[in-house]
Amino acid sequence: MFQPLPLFIGLRYSGARAHRFFVSFITWVSLLGVAVGVAALIVILSVMNGFESELRSRLLALSAPVRLSAPDDPARDWESMAPGVAAVPGVKAAEPYAELQVLAVRQPEMLPLLLRAAGAAMRAELADLLVEGDVRALDQPQSIIVGRQVAEQLGVAVGDPFTLLVPTVTGGELPEARLREFTVGAIFEAGLQEHDGTLAFATPATLLELGAARSGSVGLAVQVPDALAAPQIAARIRATLAAGTVVSDWTGEHASYFRAIRIEKTMMALILLLVVGVAAFNIVAMLVMVVTDKRTDIAILRTLGAEPGTMARVFIVQGLIIGWAGVIAGVLLGLAIAMNVDPILGFLGAVFGLQLFDSDVYYITQVPSELHWMDVLLVALSALLVTALATVYPARRAAATPPAEALRYE
User: CB atoms < 10 A from the CB of 308, how many?
Assistant: First the structure.
């Protein structure tokens, strides 16, 4: 017999075949419940991470991670500031940008649009989202790129003309509307209503000509290699600039999107953790029945000199073996599914004739999955803690078993 004694006896009880059928059944149900709960947690969190990453990439495809503006100084020379900003550590590139609210008119439809300047970096991103036309169409005069929903609502295709009504302010600070004819050079689709139904792109020169410096907003668009580091890089840029310059990053501009995703992830994790909790209650029930079944063994060991704490640790070991075996099995199953979500869904779709994301309805036709090892670690540790807590009550009950009472009726 090896030491320590609680580990030896706990292992013997865990591997014993003499348990009653009901006890053995609950043991396997408990182990399976822990495994399923842990696996579900890992898979769901990975899919939520995938959707968050997909949303982030689509949001940043049509806007800069960091932007600089000066509302109180519309005449600022951003072109001369760009090299200095580009020299800040972590900055990939900096180029002027402009935005202007306009009204697209094509009888009988009228649609408000946000006209945004497309510099070199923005053109590269737009090229990956085009469904019709070519991004080089912007090199042609009076040509702009519109979202797919904008094109559908206006009833235009590539090459069709339409009119932009541009609100401006005269020298006497009086509002004035200008009409300009444009041609649809290309159509993009980002898969987001906020972009596909409200955005259009033109050259920076076109925006300045339309009066973006007076009626819209101008500044610098800053590209960074790692979008997640944008807040830190924005802070560095802010430290190098004079007062009056507003530095914003995408995490603030789109905070509502990612706050909603974080809330959903938290709630899903808590709900699925209840599955592990139910399995933990099964472990409690199983260990209580084992303690009742082993009252004679407990009494004999106590009369031979075993301390109450020793008996408590025996059943803690048995419960931990069951719970942790379920956690390990759940982690392995969750990793296997999370790394192969799309092939598994494809196989199930082929077998049962199901189509989870119809391409006619959804822009995203595949289930993205992004495995974060920190999530896996937190899930495993949470499940280990829950199963460890499940052993406390049965262990204390075993420690409190009086030897004389247990042997009296044997």
Answer: 15
